[in-house]
Write a structure and sequence with these properties.
Strand content of chain B: over 45%
Shape of chain B: globular
Number of strands of chain A: 11
Helix content of chain B: under 10%
Number of helices of chain B: 0
Structural class of chain A: mainly beta
Largest interface: A-B, 28 and 27 residues
Oligomer: heterodimer
Order of helices and strands of chain A: EEEEEEEEEEE
Distance between the termini of chain B: 38 Å
Radius of gyration of chain B: 13 Å
Distance between the termini of chain A: 31 Å
Radius of gyration of chain A: 13 Å
Number of helices of chain A: 0
Largest sheet of chain A: 7 strands, mixed
Largest sheet of chain B: 6 strands, mixed
Amino acid sequence: DSGVTQTPKHLITATGQRVTLRCSPRSGDLSVYWYQQSLDQGLQFLIQYYNGEERAKGNILERFSAQQFPDLHSELNLSPLELGDSALYFCASSRQGLSTGELFFGEGSRLTVL
Amino acid sequence: DQQVKQNSPSLSVQEGRISILNCDYTNSMFDYFLWYKKYPAEGPTFLISISSIKDKNEDGRFTVFLNKSAKHLSLHIVPSQPGDSAVYFCAAEKTSGSRLTFGEGTQLTVNP
């Protein structure tokens, strides 16, 4: 158990809809990262938050948005959904703002868009 | 632009033998490299890392080798055990940066 909690674990929805993925970091971790893993691909970095502020942005689409709340949990919003958004979405956390290398990952949220 | 590549999607070895997983990178600014292991229905977990000032780092049965001139790193597992069967991701970062760049992963299967 990494200490990072992601909900929901599985989600099936339709194109054009909106979903919110939630992540609670390990206790004491200030940084939250979101990664997307599509079929047969590596983990693609989407965005990082540190102590409530956006710290780095990767390949995140304009249809996606994220935020980190004062209690340090984070949400990733995807809308409007497209078929290609079907993927595993991982949240990870770390103690520091800059990546020290070791990220602690949640179990992921598997999104299926029909 | 895939800056970290794992060219072998899968690898199968016999229990007790050596497993060698390979990874290539293109960004010369990367100076810290990691391997993560992922079991089904779980998130990736950190396995071993190496800084660019070293060419080898060992932790028990796991050794990572870094060849900076070739922009290549490898993970050796000796002896391989069935419990090592998992997807292994290579990752790289610039320590002044704030993200890990991952490869596509290699599925290792260790047969009893």
